[in-house]
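Record pair follows.
FIRST:
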Amino acid sequence: MPTDNAYAKINLTLDIVGKRSDGYHLLETVMQTVSLCDRVSVEPCNGIEVTCSEPDVPTGPENTCHKAARLFFEHNMIAGGAKIHIEKHIPSQAGLGGGSSDAATVIKLLNLIYGVCRSDGELERIAAKVGADAAFFIRGGAALCRGIGENIEPLPKLPKREILLVKPDFGISTPEAYRRFDEKGTLSKRGTSAFMEAVKRGGNPYLKLSNDLEESAGDQRIEKIRGELIGLGAEASQMSGSGSCVFGLFERKETAEAAKLALAGKYPFVCLCGTI
C-alpha cells in the first residue's frame, strides 16, 4: 500500500488582514513544515473508505482525507476509489495542520497511483478546496501564504532550528479561535512584514514571530508554556496557528533535549522535532 509522511507545520507569523463575505478570514502567514508527521496510506478500491489509528477522529465524509479523495476524482473525472489509512502522531486542535497535511498527502498519493501526473500548482488548487492550509502542504518547506492560504510564495530555506512542541491538556478549535478574534475586535499586529524584512536582509527572522490569534486568545496557560520555553533556553516561542500547541525554537539540540526532559512530565504532549 503506497504510504507517505504527512508533515506538521508551525506558523511563524499569522496576520488576520480581512474577512470575506463567506466568512473566511484573509491571512498573511509564514508557515514552516516540521519533522513531526502522520503516516498516510492509500490504495485503490471501490468507493472511498477512511480508517484511522486514533478512534476519536471522524472517518466519514467530513474527514479531510475523504473530502480530498472525492475532490481529486471529481477534478480529474476519474470513476475511482481509495482506501485510506491514517496513522496519527500529530495532535488534533493544536494548530499544527494535521488534518490538512493528511489531505494533501492523499492528493499526492492519488496523483501517483492513478498516474494523472498533475503539476504541484494543479494539486494545490485541488487541495485549496479541502481547507485553508491544505494547499501549503503539497510542497511544504517554508512559504508565505496569503488569501485563505491558497496564494503560496515559497521562501528560501530558513535557518535550521530544533523545535520543541508542547500541547497542554486542552485543544482549541479553529472556528472558535477566529470567533474570539472577531468578538474582541483585535487589530492585526501585521508582524509578517517585519519577519519578511528580516529574511530579505539576512537577519534572524525568528526574533520577529507574531500570531494574531494568540493575542486574541489571551490564555494564561499558553503564556505560561511560552515563558517556560524561554526560561529553558528557547530563542523564541509562540503558539502555532489557532493553538493550543506552543513551540520553542532552539539553536542547540542539547538545550532542546534538556528542555524536553524538563517539560515531559508536566504536559501530555511534548515532542522534539526540527524544520524541514
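SECOND:
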Amino acid sequence: MSKLLLLGCIADDFTGATDLANNLVRSGMRVMQTMGVPTEPLPADANVDAVVVALKSRTLPPSEAVVQSLAALEWLQAQSPDPHGLQIYFKYCSTFDSVFTPAVQGNIGAVADALMEALGTDFTIATPAFPDNGRTVFKGHLFVGDVLLSESGMQNHPLTPMTDSNLVRVLQAQTQKKVGLIDYKTVAAGDEAITAQIQRLRQQGVRMAVVDALSNQDLMRLGKALKGLPLVTAGSGVAIGLPQNFGIASSNTSSQLPVPRGLQAIVSGSCSLASNAQVAHGIASGLPALAIDPLAIVEKQTAGVDVVAEALTWAKTNFEKLAGGQAASPILIYATADAASVKAVQAKLGVALAGEMVEQTLSRIAVGLVELGVRQLVVAGGETSGACVQALGLTQMQIGPQIDPGVPWCYVPSPMGLHLALKSGNFGTEDFFSKAFEVLK
C-alpha cells in the first residue's frame, strides 16, 4: 500500500494511458503505469503520486468496459490508505470516441455512470480538451484544430467513427443521467465561478457537465475547481491542472529514464491522418520500410506462408545493413493505410477480423523485433499498442520525457530494459518518428 498515492487513474486504452501519465509527469507527479489491472499490490517501496491503470476497453461493449473499469477502481482504492479520499480520473480519448455500432453509441457514459455509483458521487465533469494537441471545446462542441470533430477525418474512423461534434448530445446518448454544459465564459471567470456553476447545475438535476476549454489556462482554472471531486472524467488535458491541488510543481527529475541502448524500430498500425503522414515522412526520409497488407496476410496464411517470419527476416537483413553503415537508424514496419483502403479491406474481411488480424500480426512482429535486440521501440495506434503490450507481457512502465504533446517515452525495467513509446494514432507532428529517437539521445 502506497502512503503517497494521491490520484488513481483508469484509461480506456494503452496510448491514452501514457498520454495521461505524460501530462502528470510534466506537471511534477511521479507516475507508474500498469498494463491491465494488476494481480499484486504496489511494491512496498513504490514512491509514486499517481498510478495509471491502462485498459483496452475503448472498443468493448459498455457492460464489459464497466466490469474492467470497476475492477481497476477496486485495485486503485486498495493501494491507498484513504480509499474514499483518493481522487479517481477516468481518461478517454481527446476525440471522445469509443465503441460505436447501430445499437451502441459509445461506452464513456456507461463507465462514468458505474464509477459515480461506486464512488457515491452525484456529479462529475467531462471534457476531452487538450489544446496542446489542437483539441478544444467551445459551446460544447469539440474542435480538432480549426475544424469540427465531425469534419476532421474522425468521421471515417474504421472502429469508432465520430459524426457529431456536440459533446452534450453525444454523452447524453450514452447515459440516463442529465448532461449539462459549463461554458467558456464561466471557465474564463475562474475556479470560483466554475465551482458556483457546478452547484447550480447540481440543483437543476444535472449529473454530468461537459466543460468548454480553449487554452491551458482554462484547464488550470478548471483543475482548481475540481479539487476534492471524487471523480474526474476527461481526456489527458485536465491532468495538467490537478497536481497543483496537491502542492506539486513541475520538475525535470520526474521524467528521467536510463540511458537507451539496442536497436531501433517503429511499428505502425494506426490508419489516422496523422499516422499516414508520419509513415509517408519516414519513408521519404529514407527509413527502411516494410508494408503489411491485410489481404496479403490472409492469402499467405492460406498458402502456408508466415507473414511474421517474412517480416522478421526482412528486419534482420536491414539491421545487418544498418550495422555496416555510418549511423544507427530505425526500421519501419507498417499496416497504416488511408480510409478508402481500410474500407476496402473491411468490406472483404469484415471490420472485426480485419482489425484483429493486423493487430495480432504487428504484435507478433513486435515480439520478434525485441528478440532480435530492439530496445528502442515506437508503436503507433491505440489498438496496435494494446496488442503489442499484451504480446510482450508488459505489466508496468516508468514514464519519461515527452516526444510530442501526449506521447512520452516510457521504460520497461530489467530484464527487458526496453524504451517504449506508445503513440495515439492522431498525435504527433509529421516528423514524429525521427524526432522520437532524437529525444532519447
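COMMENT: DSSP finds 14 helices and 18 strands in the chain.
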